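#struct-help
A.M.: can someone run this one for me? Single chain, 253 residues.
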Amino acid sequence: MKVDLGLTGKVVLVTGGSGGIGAELARTFAAEGAKVAVTYRANREAAEEVARECGPDRGLAVHYDLTELASVDAAVETVERHWGPVDVLVANAISPGALRKPGKLFEELPTEDCASFINVNIAPVFHTVAKVLPGMRAKKWGRIAFISSRAATAGKPGREAYGAVKSALHGFATSLAWDVGRDGVLVNTILPGLTVTPRVAQQVPAEMLERERAITPSGRLSCPGDVAQLAVFLCSAANGNTNGQFAEVSGGR
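D.P.: on it. Structure tokens below:
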């Protein structure tokens, strides 16, 4: 039996696609014949470069700012005008903030900082999903993947608010799956572990990466392609009935 991903011509919206995992997500979907909208908040040039890498008529750079719901509306509407309704949404964007600095206690982190961080990283994702769902329901086919983090299940020092946000994505997916599954829309969550993106390779000391690699059962750390390939499967026709689930990409950690 041949596995058909069925992504040729599908319209894919990757939020936070200008670099790292997001950029690899965009390139991998495009390699399967999809049309990919790559969103950015500030780095337009990087997003446009990723869009070019997707190939002629397969990439589109679109502004998308989690702090402005009007920006979310405009992004989805731009994609729909250009290519038609979104078939696949990969929610990867996150707005930074609310990280507890070393030596500080959790209670020293202002509550308003945590509340703001959680709100700006959850409400716009709900809003984005609401914007793309009508088109998916109309076609009786759609795929949604939330890029979470292993911090949601294993925790990470100083990342309480971040862990809460990433955990919320899976909670959202498990309940949303009940609402949209019968309309042919499958929703899942991906939890990457430590992933060696260009930024991680530049900012994390080599000896620390080696320590992490040594205690990883697979014997290596994940790369962005590992995450992207799983996302492509879950968001393709090859995924016939995996819905409301989460999958870690961490080499067995």
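A.M.: thanks! Residues 111-139 form the longest helix (29 residues).
D.P.: also worth noting: The chain has nine helices and seven strands.
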